[in-house]
Amino acid sequence: PRLTKNKIQTCIKIIIIDKYIIDDKEFDIPQVDTPPTLESILNEPEDEDEPFILEDTCILNTENIDAHSCETSSLASSDSGDPVETNATVHGSVLRRNVLKGISAQMVSAADKVDAGLPTAITVSNVIAVGTSHGLALVFDQNQALRLCLGTTATGAEYGAVSALSINHDCTRLLCGFAKGQITMWDLANGKLLRTITDAHPPGTAILHVKFTDHPALAVCNDSGGSVFELSFRRVMGMRTCESRCLFSGSKGEVCCVEPLHAGPELKDHPITHYSLLAMASLTKILLIGLKPSLKVWMTFPYGKTDPASVPLLAWQFVAAQKTINPVLAFCRGNTIHFLLVKKDESGTIHVIKQRQLQLNCDFISLSWINPRTLVLMDSTEKLRVVDRPSQEELETVDMAELQLVYNSSHFKLLALVGEKTCYQSVCSYAGQIMYLGTKSVHIMTLRNWHERVDHLLKQEKFMEALSLAWSFHEGTAKAVLGLFAEPAKRKGVVAEKMVEILLQYVDRSLKKCPEQGKIQDMVPIMVDYCLLLQRKDLLFNQIYPRLVENSVARGVFLESLEPYILSERIGCLTAPVMRDLLSYFQENGMMDSVEGCLVHMDITNLDIQQVVQMCWDNQLYDAMIYVFNSGMNDYISPMEKLFQAIGPPLREGKPLTDEHVVMGNKLLVYISCCLAGRAYPLGDIPEDLVPQVKNQVFEFLIRLHSVEAAQEEEVYPYIRTLLHFDTREFLNVLALTFEDFKNDKQALEYQQRIVDILLKVMVDNSDFTPSQVGCLFTFLARQLAKPDNTLFVNRKLFDQVLEFLCSPDDDSRHTERQQVLLELLQVGGVVQFDEGHLLDLAEKAEFYQICEFMYDRKHLYDKIVDCYLKDPLRKEELFNYIHNILSMPGYSSEEKQLVWVKALQHIKVSQKRLHMLCPLEHTPGREKITEKHKLHEATAYLLEKKGDVQGAFEVLLQETGDEVPSLLQRVEEALHDIIALCQRSSHGLNQQQREVCVCVCVCVCVCVRDPVYGKGKLAEIQGLILGMLETFNYEQTLLETTTNLLNSDLHWSLSHLRKAVSRGLHPRQDHCNICLQQYKRRQESEEEIIIFSCGHLYHCQCLQRKEVGVLSERQYSWSCYKCTSNQGSRPADRPSTESSRSHSASLAQVSQAVTIHNQCAQPNMKILAYFIHLNMLQKNPYDRLVCVRDHNVLKCYRTSSTKSISHFDYFLFLAAFDPF
């Protein structure tokens, strides 16, 4: 098939079919003149505007992956590429680091004794091969014994250093690449040289990589010129030959890393292995090709923007995804690691899928898989970073600086920039082990198994971390796990045993080495937590608690720590000794609330019930007492008996209840409600088989004729009477809720009727109950009777009897209460129980006007409701709102509105508000004539005011006050209030003269009314005095406003100049002290302060102190410029009088204030800016004198007092800012 650039740079779906050719039209592949080569693909310029897009990663679904079998070193480990949520935050030491001392010692010995040279390369299989700088290859077995020394120093002088090594898959052949370009093949069984290859690539270029593929006769090599060659080994007629084919030429681009895909013996039949995949990394992109059955480019992937000095890295690993195992290529350059999954589906289509990338904050020089989920990376600072790929979490960091890693920089002649950090041949991995080659040693890194990781923390006495790590193993959330069973049950069993061991060690160590309270308080909750997580309460109470009892502090901490677990119901049952100790400890320490909270959440069958009940009663733990009776003995009646015995006597005797009695009564009501509803008190539910029995017992108890220990004078039904007297409404609400559940239960319905009969018998015609209580009863009954499925029977005469009782006209007490009770009764449906005519008559006689309104509203007689409002003194003022609503709101017929309007006109008494609401101005012209005719002065004035004739309204109201008849004095005062209100409303519409006349008249009238001396006086006699007062007021008001404006203008001018001064910066003329002539920037080692003046001179503080140019006043130094004052012939210390006599016109250069800053803040490329601000006396209040000190780049401001006694103050503000020149 023909390939194009676009097809290669996007997600490629390659169909490998040998028997026919792909149809270009079918797959919409455009025609090209010349198919691209590998060289052209690698050297294509990167198009940053069109990023490479791979197939969607949603193909990998983590839901079907067994997460418990993925943390082993097996190749069947699953990997989805997606993050896995985990609560584990402690990973411990993941890597075990060992030094291969035998190999290290023999490398050093070979360098000294046989001049083998320094190590340059390493590879590992069943044996370990180390190449040297003098051309030798040292082969060691698994016991670190030297098996072979391949090559000679003479060969090394000819070929150069060993630059690359590779062992084939069956560990029978070793390929050695040299710095001068030669390649040799050795037989590892006998150390025989099999081939020397000198013409496989251009001469003079070093071999950077030589790699066997899984095909036994195929290898690849990469030279320092950036070219890649395929090496095919053949044996023809006894002659060993090697054919070389150039896969990529470095003339137009440089490949600096190659990595063939290797599959273990268990994956030799994997469908992907048949293609001999080869990944190549150039300086710009990754190229994935297949060598078999024919050379084919599968995909390219550009890096994007990276550091040119970053090293390209490649690493293959088989991982399990969606229960199938496929290879994943990890590659990176810089700090971003990309992953490509290669898979072949059932149809034979090969997919290359880009997975989630991993980005860290460092530049990598080595990349290795240590298992299918874990990567080990080395950054440019030679630190190993262990990263969990699915979660992208960094598990551990190991410093490898002491290794003195071998770098292959000398071989990268044409790739010098990248070669500075290359260590391709110094790192190799095999079977879950990674080896690192140092100049004098070989280090091997392996994963610790789970047990070893826990023990490593225990050796450091990090028990909490060890427990946390072990729990993550237990739950399957740990990372890089090795050595655990894949089956969850077996895994949890093994880890649980280890955690028990850790817990016991932790307890012993804490009690022995850290007996102080703080350590124990940290330890005990951890013990409890993990014992509960492991479901090992036996361990907690039978092994750990006996050890803690020996320490009194530990015992108390343990018992207190149990409370939150009991309240959260994580602990529901305690052993008898622990339970006894818990109750006694709480009781001894006055923690009775905790006792109650714990008791109601626990199984108390193993306690002494009578003792616990008595303790609860004595300490007023009523919830706990009820719970103990219910749960311990299935007794639901005894708690009620005890509570009734407590609250009954004071209620019967009419005594006020104490707070304790109120609490008991409320709990009793709630308890009864819970029992009748089938719920346990204070929480939970009653067992289903006991619910009917409990309900019957409670009903039978409530309707008892007498109590158990009844006195002769006890009235019948004492329990119901007690509840009614305690809280009638709430008790009836409890019954109402209970009656809601009575459906198709014949016995329950009988109890319902029985209780209603008792309530009527107890409350009706009983003076012990108020009308409100009786009303509550009949309201309750009305609600029950109004239900569609009602089965209650109540004699209607009782409702008439209650009506007569509530509407008794001879009883004026509780009038509002009785009316409200009757209204509530009618609103819930009780109206059907009465004769409506008789009800209206009684309501009118009792002056229950709200009842009348309710009845008239039902009949739509809205006009009669007007009479109800007029007769009701409490709601008379609401009449016009009601009329307005009727007339303006929809829902009423025109006839009903007309009747209301006529009724309103019959009873109307005109006032300002009423006239405004009933007679809109635009609908009733000439209304003021009607009001004048009937001498309604208030209405006339109101109408004139609405017309805009304020003067006329004022005269009308003034006319009303002119009557001098003493009997009308009160009316005059009312009219005067109306006049004042009119003036207040309309003063804005009058001119100055009119306002003066109105005010004058009002004052005169007030004086005449209040003081009989002026009763016969004339207005003109005091008019002059009043007008004079008004004139004085106007003058003073104008003066105040003018003065305020002047002050505001002056302040604005001052602040604007202040802002201009702040925006100007000053810096010193020189960068050295004008006294000692030393540059202040170079004295950063000291804490010396510097002082800069407005004149631009700069000094060290100590220099000024030695010259005595500072004046100490009120604990603050007042500095002056030494150079300026020396030129004037004197110093400020010698002229205190002159300083104090300075006038307010002093210039900025004369201000003797300075600014100090710490010298260590100054830097060679910085300058100092100083801002000077002057404030006069008018600005003294809003601004204090400020001196700002810049210390360690922090601006500190503090207040200093003024040293001047003149009328103006000079304020100096230094805003220290260091800006680059």
TrEMBL record:
SUPFAM superfamilies linked: RING/U-box, WD40 repeat-like
InterPro entries in alphabetical order: Vps41/Vps8, Vps8_central_dom, WD40/YVTN_repeat-like_dom_sf, WD40_repeat_dom_sf, WD40_rpt, Znf_RING, Znf_RING/FYVE/PHD, Znf_RING_Vps8
Keyword Transcription among record annotations: no
Protein's UniProt keywords contain Zinc: yes
WD repeat spans: 155-196
Database matches in CDD domains: RING-H2_Vps8
Positions of transmembrane segments: none
Domain RING-type: 1073-1125
Coiled-coil features, chain-numbered ranges: none
Keywords for this protein: Metal-binding, WD repeat, Zinc, Zinc-finger
GO MF entries: zinc ion binding
Family note: Belongs to the VPS8 family.
Name assigned to this protein: VPS8 subunit of CORVET complex
Organism, as annotated: Cyprinus carpio
Lineage of source species: Eukaryota, Metazoa, Chordata, Craniata, Vertebrata
